[in-house]
UniProtKB/TrEMBL annotation:
Name of the protein: DUF3152 domain-containing protein
Keyword Transmembrane (UniProt): yes
Record keyword Manganese present: no
Transmembrane segments: 6-26
Domain DUF3152 positions: 87-287
SUPFAM superfamilies: Metalloproteases ('zincins'), catalytic domain
């Protein structure tokens, strides 16, 4: 080994010893030299947590009270409306006719006794189909011949004619014609008696009245008997007692309730005082309902 190489070896050994000594003198807990350049960042373990959807209802624990069920709204009791004067839904009827009437051909034998009143059955042209004209006449005939009708008193009768001049004409009439004759004071479809003629409103004939609750046959009998009652000189009547059969001369087309009828006719007098007494009758088409057929 040459002297130069020996010198380098000795110098390197001395330098290594100095470095080892310096490292041995560092204070405890100090970082090693290779870590001095930046702070130590502790490693953190991550946990994946599965979240329930936000719309999911929370599950109550055993230590918390169960949530109260949603409150159910208390049903409101509805008062059944008293039948009024509005025209029930049903068959469409022409609003206007031609303004003239054709007598339906046919006659009947006398029914009842005492003074006999003749009548004709007529239909406004253009108001109804031809097939309805004879049906109208048949209902009128059966109604006036029924023992529960006006002949029950025994002192009057009826007979239908088609050529001779009758005592009273019974006419099925279009809406516009009936309103123009019966008046516009009450804004409802209605029939009437005027100047020796019964004008039967076609809408009422085919659709009836709310008070009869769908009993169209009963309503038709009522309207014939009611208007013939006017021909015989009878005036309007109120309901006499709660739950009683309505008098045939009560304006049952509008209502069978005195309170409701008084309200409807308050501004248009109908020839009778209707008391507001709470009485509501049962609809009735006959002058003498107690008579057995």
């Amino acid at each position: 080994m040459t002297v130069g190489r020996i010198f380098i070896f000795v110098f390197a050994s001395m330098l290594a010893g100095v470095m080892i000594g310096m490292l041995g003198n560092l204070p405890p807990g100090e970082p090693a030299l290779e870590n001095v350049a930046g702070p130590r960042v502790p490693s953190v373990a991550t946990v994946s947590v599965r979240q329930a959807p936000s719309s999911a209802a929370p599950v109550p624990s055993s230590s918390s009270p169960s949530p109260a069920p949603p409150s159910t709204p208390t049903p409101v009791a509805r008062v059944k409306p008293r039948p009024g004067p509005e025209l029930p839904p049903g068959q469409a009827v022409r609003a206007e006719g031609e303004g003239w009437w054709r007598t339906v051909a046919g006659t009947t034998a006398q029914v009842g006794g005492g003074r006999v009143h003749t009548y004709s059955v007529e239909v406004e042209q253009g108001a109804v189909l031809p097939a309805e004209q004879r049906r109208f006449a048949e209902v009128v005939d059966r109604t006036l011949a029924d023992p529960r009708g006006w002949t029950a008193s025994g002192d009057l009768g009826f007979r239908r004619v088609d050529v001779e001049e009758p005592d009273v004409r019974i006419r099925l009439t279009a809406t516009g014609t009936a309103r123009s004759i019966c008046g516009f004071q009450l804004p409802y479809d209605t029939s009437c008696y005027a100047g020796g003629v019964v004008y039967v409103s076609a809408p009422r004939w085919f659709r009836g009245a709310e008070s009869f609750a769908g009993d169209l046959a009963g309503y038709r009998q009522y309207v014939v008997n009611h208007e013939i009652g006017h021909f015989l000189g009878r005036g309007h009547e109120p309901c006499p007692a709660d739950g009683a059969p309505a008098p045939v001369m009560m304006q049952q087309t509008f209502s069978v309730s005195n309170d409701r009828l008084a309200e409807i006719t308050a501004a248009t007098p109908q020839g009778v005082h209707v008391p507001r007494d709470g009485n509501t009758c049962v609809p009735n088409p006959w002058p003498t309902a107690a008579v057995t057929r």
